[in-house]
Amino acid sequence: MSLIETKGLRKVFRQAVKDPGLAGAVKHLFTQRYKDKCAVEGIDLKIEEGESVAYVGPNGAGKSTTIKMLSGVLVPSGGEVVVDGLVPYKQRMDNAQRIGAVFGQRTQLWWDIPVRESLALLRDIYQVPESTFKKNMDAFTELLGLESFLHLSARKLSLGQRMRADLAAALLHDPKIVYLDEPTIGLDVAVKHRIRDFIKEMNRAKGTTMLLTTHDLGDIEDLCERLVIIDQGRIIYDGKLQDVKDAFARERTIHIQLSSPLPEAESLFRDLPDVSVNRPGEGAEAAFSLSIRFDRFRCTASDIVKRVMNRGEVVDFRIDEPSIEDIIRRVYEGQLDSVVLAEAGKGSA
Ligand SMILES: Nc1ncnc2c1ncn2[C@@H]1O[C@H](COP(=O)(O)OP(=O)(O)OP(=O)(O)O)[C@@H](O)[C@H]1O
After folding, report:
1. For the ABC transporter domain, which residue ranges apply (predicted)?
2. Is the dihedral of CA 77, 80, 83, 87 positive or negative?
């Protein structure tokens, strides 16, 4: 059995239907109307020990609801969920010992006491042995740079400091699984990198299984090999991040710097389909540089560079990798349907 396994997992919320304005609120007091909102609609998910999985989707797709069911906060309306052999909503205390959770929008630290004391309280709650506590505190203090604000209360922390303290709090008891809900939201680039490095290190050194929800595509590319895309409560893609890139980002661009101008470079590629040549920059600079776009399934980067090298001296070149950002945006916008995505997933799993 996988470390995390769900079968047909569902969650239906009962939502109040109110007419707008004060009149609507008053009317609702007397004649209550409700509708069912299916937030998660039959999720089948298997996550193995040590995996790092990105769980992404547009706003309202059902990501947080899934994580809340995995962590035992919400009781499912249907289906099955087993995490490390436990049913989270039935065995909440045992489950809590094995998981850690970071919610970017909220903190689990006590608002008015110094971070150092919050962490000591968590040590007692989770009954972390003193030697583990000390080892983890030393490692986290260094990796996350906690020293300068351990004496401050959570109330006084900046967002980046708070997030680093929250990560330490979530991992203090060496959980097998960590749920990260938007762990880098609103952070500057330097703190983001620090947090990503820390997550990678925990996954690498301790084999911690990570399930990450994020709208930050840098997080996904940096931290996860597996991508699960959810939309309207259903999984529409589950496979390797690289497969999605391969299927939808066929286009590559090689930027070449030349030692002398190369006129009519277009003629070098006449026999190759789907190759186009641009000259970035202005004036003299444009004469020395080429940007060549090609379909990597129809020809290779070395084909392109070789042809240029036969006619001129190449000083430098770089290849632009496809960005996952555009692909996921297209999925969100419904441009790529589930059939096409399923095709991309063949060969993963
Ligand atoms: N407690 C609740 N009561 C009623 N409806 C809810 C509740 N929690 C979530 N929902 C609804 O369920 C759907 C899924 O919400 P969820 O928070 O899981 O989405 P999400 O994918 O995490 O979105 P986001 O990226 O915006 O955080 C939404 O339509 C939301 O309005």
Report:
1. 17-257
2. positive
